[in-house]
Amino acid sequence: MAQTTENIEASHIHLDSSFVVVFSKSKGMRRFTLAELRDYELEPDEFYWAYLQRVAAQNREFLEEAGLEHSDIDELLAREVRPHCHVRSKGVFIAINSFNELPSQESGDMEYAHVWVDERRIICVWHEPLEVFRSLVESFNKRVPPESTAEFWARLVLAIAERAEDMVEELQDRIDHLEDVVLETGDHPWESELARVRRFATIVRRSMLAFLDTIRNFEIENFSWVNRVNKRRVREAGDRALRIAEEMDAIRERAEIVHDQIMFKRSETTNRSMLMMAAIAVVFLPLSFITGLLGINVAGIPGSHDPVAFTVVTALLVLIGLVLFMIVRWFKMF
Predict the structure, then answer these.
(1) What domain range includes position 49?
(2) What is the CA radius of gyration of the chain?
(3) HEC-encoded secondary structure of the chain
(4) In this structure, is residue 1 part of a structural domain?
(5) Count of domains forming the chain
(6) Cβ–Cβ under 8 Å, residues 252 and 200
(7) Are residues 96 and 212 in the same domain?
(8) 117 shares a domain with 23
(9) Angle between helices 131-142 and 149-180 (to 10 degrees)
(10) Which of 208, 229, 264 marks a domain boundary?
(11) Domain co-membership, 156 together with 135
(12) Does residue 179 sit within a domain?
């Protein structure tokens, strides 16, 4: 039998490489390499968590030695698989998605984890390190490690839901700020920021609905190794996912309202400007007509040889302008 490692703390579990952690009620957590696990025989109260990087060369050999079917191995090692839950004779394959953080770039891509769960093992295959596993490992420091694969899975889906709730709070802060800018200050925020919030809300909603469908499919299966407590935890994660999807709908509706307010204020500003130009035209077009008429270069223009005619015409133009201005003000054109 290979020499196993001593008991480890959760802080010593590094998520940047492949490893195996054996959980035991009596011996705590112990870290193994994939090679060490081949020569280790699990005791009745033990199960293991295999954390595998998808591109590692030894993954297929390890999974074949673990007794998985070739179709399950192909799905576990696939680059991308749509979120779903497939029940097999020996366990269940689950493709699940999660965000590392609220997307700040235009891509907003989700990261995927492929998980195999049965009574004695839970195998997670990842392409990019997921922060949800880091938060899950940190929870081992705060409370006792999981006692079964079902409890490990329940904690994992709850951790994904908690990270999604953090994203909801950040998106709510963004839309609150946009509402304050539009409704209180009257300024026009960047439309790109509003479009980004709406897009991210759509992505998160779609992700949570797929997540909900996946864990609901797991929940309805009657696995003998999943007790009532862990079923309730999985159900709670599903309820959180549904609530998050509803929150995303609310955020998208609020974003629509903000967009409508922006369009209304922009239209109001445009209409006010057009009305101002119309009022100016009402005043100055008649004056321009009179001056243009008096400026034609033909004989017979009245007062062309009178030295006081210019003063009289100017005074008349000022008087006409004042009258027109009072008429415009009377009709409240501005």
Answers:
(1) 10-264
(2) 36
(3) CCCCCCECCHHHCCCCCCEEEEEECCCEEEEECHHHHHCCCCCCCEEEEEEEECCCCCHHHHHHHCCCCHHHHHHHHCCCCCCEEEECCCCEEEEEEECCCCCCCCCCCCEEEEEEECCCEEEEEECCCCHHHHHHHHHHHHCCCCCCHHHHHHHHHHHHHHHHHHHHHHHHHHHHHHHHHHHHHCCCCCHHHHHHHHHHHHHHHHHHHHHHHHHHHHHHCCCCCCCHHHHHHHHHHHHHHHHHHHHHHHHHHHHHHHHHHHHHHHHHHHHHHHHHHHHHHHHHHHHHHHHHHHCCCCCCCCCCCCCCHHHHHHHHHHHHHHHHHHHHHHCCCC
(4) no
(5) 2
(6) no
(7) yes
(8) yes
(9) 120
(10) 264
(11) yes
(12) yes
The model's pTM is 0.73
Per-residue pLDDT of the chain (334 residues; tens, 9 = 90+): 334 445 565 556 666 678 888 998 888 888 888 888 888 888 888 999 998 887 777 888 888 888 888 888 888 888 777 888 888 877 899 988 877 665 544 444 567 788 999 999 999 988 777 778 888 888 877 777 888 999 999 999 988 888 888 888 888 888 888 877 776 665 565 677 788 888 888 888 888 888 889 888 888 888 888 888 999 999 999 999 999 999 989 988 888 888 887 787 778 888 888 888 888 888 888 888 888 877 777 777 777 777 787 788 888 888 888 888 888 777 776 6
Which one, of 163, 148, 178, lies nearest residue 113 by Cα?
163
Measure the N-to-C terminal CA separation of the chain; round to a whole number of Å: 92
Q: Supply angle C-alpha 103, 104, 107, rounded to 5.
A: 65
